[in-house]
Amino acid sequence: MAISVCFSPLTSTPKHYSRIPLYKPINPITTLTTPKILNPNFKKVNCVPENSQNLSVIQEKPRWKNWVSIAESLYPVYVTVGGVVACLKPSTFSWFVKCAPTSYSLGLWFIMLAMGLTLEIKELTNLLLQKPLSILFGCAAQYTIMPTLGLILSKILGLPPSISVGLILLACCPGGTASNVVTLIAQGDVPLSIVMTACTTIGAVVLTPLLTMILAGTYVPVDAVKLSISTLQVVVAPILLGSYLQHKFPKAVKKITPFAPLLAVLAISLVSASVFSENVGRLRSSVVGMSFSSDLPLLSRAQNVLASEFGLVAVSVALLHFAGFFVGYLSAALAGFSEPQRRAVSIEVGMQNCTLGVVLATSHFSSPGVALPAATSVIIMNIMGSCLGFFWKCINPTQPKSSLEVTDKS
């Protein structure tokens, strides 16, 4: 029988003091005094079983890393502020818009590179082996629920052809990196969300062009091959490059990795605000021309706003994401997933890679209306996703007693 001993270094010898007993006990009582540690700054060491390879040292997370994590979690604030600035003063982002669509492609390329730097192939493989059914279900939900909803909404709302194509293209895009941040806020299954984002992003090379061609091909001609090549260049290539750099130069990448998510968040905010500022003039003109042309009651003005191009785009995008959140959560619940997994699937399904939708729309479609749903979704999706995340943050994702009992028995 092996015995593990835990030593406390630099300790003083216990002192024993003789006392005169008032009575003599039958069995002698031995008292132990706790030794005092002379050096209070000495690191605490956990006692571990004998068969363990090394001792685990408890180290506190550096303060600067906590600040970086907080700055990263403020992503919805960055996007919202960028959207407000784009509405009030669109010229703020004119320096970035002038170089479009090349600037949008480079921005997305940088975002995906940052994702690749933080994505370890070994961890991805382990998660795929640990949760294969959950990941497969999430990816299937991403490319079935949202495209179907996009097609149904475009038919029900009677959207113009260009906006219908843009809505379907947005619905066929993979999950965005913003979903990982929102899942963290919502106390969901973050590893599942990250792996789903990676898998759906890689699958976008084939599925996004194919689904767009099938569902939107009745409105305008869609070149699936060119869409696939663009997706491969701006999405998969930088992810693979980031993973390669992480494997080849681990020490250098380790110094950059803590800042990669924050830089990706700032890049997403810049691209989102720039795209919105480019289209805000057209959206604003459609609203002003219909809602303030005559002295109408407030209800009539609201109806005119909703009937305008801006109203159609905003309503269709909001309904698309709301339905994605709801149906994604419902499908995961019916499949028997735990509450954290339901939240991860719901957020992953409901939040799209709007930047990819904008890049594909501006690069492969001549009508500027195709980019409007993705550009508007940048603001609406992040506000809705953030509200859902903070709502779930107030609700503890504990499993019911029945599921816990089954787990314990097994």
TrEMBL record:
List residues traversing the bilayer: 75-97, 103-121, 133-157, 163-185, 192-215, 227-245, 257-276, 310-332, 371-392
Tell me the Gene3D superfamilies matching this sequence: 1.20.1530.20
Q: Which residues form a coiled coil?
A: none
Identify one Gene Ontology CC term for this UniProt entry: chloroplast envelope
InterPro entries in alphabetical order: BilAc:Na_symport/Acr3, Bilac:Na_transpt, Na+/solute_symporter_sf
What is the membrane topology noted in the UniProt record heading this document?
Multi-pass membrane protein
Location in the cell reads: Membrane; Plastid, Chloroplast envelope
Task: For this UniProt record, give its keywords in alphabetical order, as a comma-separated list.
Answer: Membrane, Transmembrane, Transmembrane helix
Q: Which Pfam families match?
A: SBF
Top-level taxon: Eukaryota
The UniProt family comment states: Belongs to the bile acid:sodium symporter (BASS) (TC 2.A.28) family.
- What this protein is called in its record is Sodium/metabolite cotransporter BASS2, chloroplastic
Which species expresses this protein natively?
Solanum verrucosum
